[in-house]
Design a protein that fits this description.
Elements lengths: L2 E2 L7 H11 L14 E7 L5 H11 L2 E7 L2 H10 L6 E5 H10 L2 E2 L14 H4 L13 E13 H5 L10 H4 L1 H4 L7 E4 L2 H11 L10 H11 L5 E3 L3 H5 L5 E5 H10 L6 E4 L5 E11 L5 H11 L2 H11 L14 H4 L8 H4 L2 E3 L5 H16 L12
Parallel strand pairs: 2-3, 2-4, 7-8, 7-9, 11-12
Antiparallel strand pairs: 1-10, 4-11, 5-11, 6-9, 6-10, 6-11
Length: about 375
């Protein structure tokens, strides 16, 4: 089983970041007149304050964070071009949509010399413009898999299967119904994971209907679809979860002695996600945006963020600066055998997107409908 079973030591940096982010999930504060400012939009809880502090000290540029919780909202804001954003971090499969709407500017590679240190297997797959200039630069990457607790292990005397059947097979789900099954509200990854469990191409349009049928059968056995899982998994409210690896590892750190949280990459394969920097064409400070990315891509700085969030860096030499328990944790850097089965998410066409959204809404309405007769815990 490819499971991350080692408990994680406390990560003080993360909880400082959470406190900072809680105050910033809103529009950034106005900058003082005449000040050199970089307005950075990123996922909430996903920016290292220490790295920001170091950048500000070295450059004299003030970073104003504009954090978001919903990637669709972030996408809409970037497309509408109504927000003051100089640099943004967004999921790589959304970069193609932004490119097609014409709201992105290409990065100037000459202004980001540290980009040469990126893993080409990751950087080369990100979109470019017609002149082959990069439209995205990797920030962090990870996987979507299964988080589970000791409650799930207790219900698996023969061993927990390292398979998506834990999330998608109604017969298997019945074994864990009384301890709670959670699915992160990440529509495209859920559909793609169901497809690969069925042995289908996770990105093929023709896989959508089969995945929809599998999800329709599974959803009545789930307790919840949401994005907030860390504390609920840590507190033992659920014993199984389709989850981003970073959230599972944060839950493992947050868990008390009564709950052990683990993470596995299913043997059938799993989505690999890349969050990437993009440059809005309306950026008021593209020079600062380039300087920030080049600063971040220094191996020591990239490692600072990976050590804080237990999420893999695309900077190859960052490995020299990682804490040993981070570098060796299979939930952060999957072993080679697991990596062979990881897959990237392809952008959906507008028609596929609409069909998937409609199907997902119907699936959300059916969640829990098979659990009425299960005694409450």
């Amino acid at each position: 089983m490819n499971a991350a079973t080692r408990r994680i030591t406390p990560i003080r940096t993360i909880w400082r970041s959470l406190a900072v982010a809680a105050a910033l999930v809103a529009s950034p504060a106005a900058a003082p007149a005449g000040e050199n400012v970089l307005r950075l939009m990123n996922w909430a809880d996903f920016t290292s304050p220490e790295m920001i502090d170091a950048f500000e000290r070295e450059t004299g540029i003030t970073v104003l964070l504009d954090n978001y919780l919903d990637v669709d909202v972030a996408l809409e804001r970037l497309i509408a071009e109504t927000a003051d954003i100089d640099l943004a971090v967004i999921s790589d499969e959304r970069v193609g949509q932004l490119r097609d709407t014409g709201v992105l500017a290409a990065f100037d590679p000459a202004l980001i010399p540290n980009r040469a240190g990126l893993d080409p297997a990751i950087a080369a797959k990100l979109p470019t413009d017609a002149k082959a200039r990069p439209l995205a630069v990797p920030y962090l990457w990870g996987t979507t898999g299964i988080g589970y607790t000791d409650q799930a292990l207790a219900r698996s005397p023969e061993g927990l299967p390292d398979s998506w059947s834990l999330i998608f097979d109604p017969q298997t789900l019945a074994r864990y119904a009384d301890c709670g099954v959670f699915v992160t509200d990440t529509r495209q990854e859920v559909f793609s994971s169901a497809a690969v469990w069925l042995g289908l191409d996770p990105n093929a349009p023709q896989s959508l209907e089969a995945a929809r049928q599998a999800l329709t059968a599974a959803a009545p056995h789930w307790q919840r679809i949401d994005e907030k899982i860390i504390e609920a998994l840590a507190d033992g409210q659920y014993c199984l979860a389709l989850v981003w690896n970073a959230d599972a590892l944060l839950a493992a750190d947050r868990a008390g002695n009564a709950t052990n949280v683990h993470y596995l990459v299913p043997r059938e394969g799993a989505p690999v996600w890349v969050d990437a920097f993009v440059l809005p064409r309306t950026s008021a400070n593209p020079e600062a945006a380039h300087r920030f990315i080049d600063f971040f891509l220094r191996p020591g700085n990239a490692a600072m963020t990976t050590n804080a969030f237990w999420t893999a860096s695309a900077v190859l030499e960052a490995a020299d600066y990682l804490d040993a328990e981070v570098a060796e944790h299979p939930g952060v850097y999957p072993p080679l055998a697991a990596r062979e089965h990881l897959f990237r998410l392809a952008p959906r066409t507008p028609e596929q997107h609409v069909a998937e959204v409609k199907a997902w809404r119907r699936i959300q309405l059916s969640v829990g409908s098979a659990l009425a007769d299960i005694p409450s815990r």
